[in-house]
Amino acid sequence: MKNKLSHINSKGKAEMIDVSEKEISTRTAEAYAEVKVSKEVFNAIKNNSIKKGDVLSIAKFAAIQAAKKTSELIPLCHNIFISKIDVELELNPKKKTVEIRSFAKTNSQTGIEMEALTAVSIAALTVYDMCKAIDKSMVISEIKLLSKTGGKSGSYFLK
């Protein structure tokens, strides 16, 4: 069965799959998330006047740290060497959002999509945490995988 869940054994129980026989290849992944904020929060981030500090820089560092800890957060995720993780946060004045993008790269036997997705998710949560004193109505959304390359399944690009 081609679409069989890979982390389910013959007894129907969850298990971590064995990737030792898989070929090492260069793999990349890009992910995206956004945080919709009020005008007041947007201006406070833009003017770097949030009491907890520089929101965009701290969220970037939190995202990088989270990517490195992905296998500790997601139970069946393999611990892989990350050769590159880059996270960019941008303010979108038209939509009043913080747009978050990550790029992750590895030479491994398994993919790096979860690390890219974890990075943008934790960046978004960090933005929320740092700004919640001003407004708790922020909305985290659009968490998605934009692309992945490498491995047996090949490339994927969000349409």
Helix content: 25-40%
* Sheet with most strands: 5 strands, antiparallel
Spatial shape: elongated
How many DSSP E strands?
5
**Unreliable parts:** none
- Sheet with most strands: strand arrangement: 2-3-1-4-5
- From the N-terminal CA to the C-terminal CA, the straight-line distance is 26 Å
Strand portion, in percent?
25-35%
Overall average pLDDT? 94
The radius of gyration is: 18 Å
Describe the secondary-structure layout:
Blueprint: E1 25-36, H1 39-46, H2 55-68, H3 70-73, E2 84-92, E3 97-108, H4 113-131, E4 139-149, E5 156-157
Antiparallel strand pairs: 1-3, 1-4, 2-3, 4-5
Question: In words, what does this structure look like?
Answer:
This protein has a five-stranded antiparallel β-sheet with strand order 2-3-1-4-5, covered by helices on one side. Strand 4 and strand 5 form a beta hairpin. The two termini are 26 Å apart. The model has no long low-confidence stretch (mean pLDDT 94). It is an alpha+beta fold and 159 residues long. The protein contains four helices and five strands, in the order βαααββαββ.
Keywords:
159 residues; alpha+beta; 5-stranded antiparallel sheet; 4 helices; 28% helix
Please provide a brief summary of the model:
With 159 residues, the chain is α+β, with helices and mostly antiparallel strands. The protein has helices at 39-46, 55-68, 70-73, 113-131; strands at 25-36, 84-92, 97-108, 139-149, 156-157.
